[in-house]
Predict the structure.
Amino acid sequence: GHARYQVDVASMDQVKLVHDFENDLMLDVWSDAVPGRPGKVLVPKFKREIFENFLKQSGVQYKLEVENVKEQLELEDQLLAAAAAKSNSSRSRLSFDKIHSYEEVDAYLQELAKEFPNVVTVVEGGKSFEGRSIKYLRISTTNFQDASKPVVMMQSLLHCREWVTLPATLYAIHKLVIDVTESDLINNIDWIILPVANPDGYVHT
């Protein structure tokens, strides 16, 4: 398997030296090393000895970061698969390992409000340019009547292609309403959560 190295150069002469050698060996360079910023390079097993010897002889500092990149990637795949299975088997309704449509999220918010009416309220804050509802959740054990409780506002998808923010917001809702393991977060804080701040942009992307 391939190993990943960090390479630290001290001068522009070393930059050229390392760059030319990496090209000669036809290595997979993730980022070029420059003074003050280390480089990252993948080196196959049968080239590691010649690569390390060259760096030592040239006085270039290096560090072996990952012994076997393939094994590390396979382990990460296993962890992601396990997390996805746990997510899909829970009571979350919407899994956290995929990007859900605007319509799915809207239906989910309505479902939560019906099932947890003492904690969750759906509010339509307005309409988008194309007429889609911009809805947010009010999550509170005191219906926002306790002035001593701080209010935390959370939103996602203001920038329509930042899709990764939606699963994070849905997970926060899940932990505050369905799978409550930190009761202080819901008992001592009121929450306003807007999952899709830019519905038109989200639908079109």
